Amino acid sequence: MRAWQRSICCSLAAAPLLMLVVLLATGGSFGEDGVFLVVAAVLPLAAAALVWRFGLWAKVVALVMTLLAVGGLFWVALGLAFPASFGDFVPAVSFLVGFVLALGGSIAAIVRHRGTRRPSVERRVVGGASVLIAVAAVVSGALTLTSGGSTPATGGTAVTMSDFSFAEATYEVASGDAITLIVHNSDGVVHDIAIPELGVEKVSVLPGSDAVVEVPAPAAGTYTVYCTLHSNLDEPDPERAGMAALLVAR
Ligand SMILES: [Cu+2]
């Protein structure tokens, strides 16, 4: 297998594998997310094996699979916004680099005639890609280590997020007074919190960090609290919405 093919495999497969490691290392359970991540890691490896083994048709298949990977770009865009979250940022960079290499490589493999290979160009591209991912990993690792572990905030209702859910199904607060939520994220990836019915816009919570969320005095009632990244905002029932909980004001 040629260098750029290896590089594509590694960077595309590394993204979900890295997320899986972060998920398990931070106490998350394997579950559906784990299965999804394993499948996502195997797909680029299978595509590369096809290209390596077979001829033009396999290259076309690889190109189609690359285009399917566009589906993964939504969380890439998301992860790139959080360099201080290793578990989001580094897989995103790795995936994006692998995607660009795969797209360019697949097209070049189909278009190019035999004997017009440019090994020196390929080597330089692959080298540059590796350096880019390594720099992203070092910078993001440093930012993640320095941003987490700050003095825990106090003086409000504690809300903990772990294993892609809220620790409690229901949070009870007093109605009629403004309240403060101290939101702690014990996962290895970014979560956020929003309470649309109370006009509380999403606040991001970095891995291992706290966020202080001010909630304007709620009237007595029940409100749905969402992590907008991992839930369906159109679903008021937290059981079905995904990463959501209830805020009950009495
Ligand atoms: Cu979340």
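^ copper (II) ion complex. The first strand starts at residue 157 and ends at 162. DSSP finds seven helices and nine strands in the chain.
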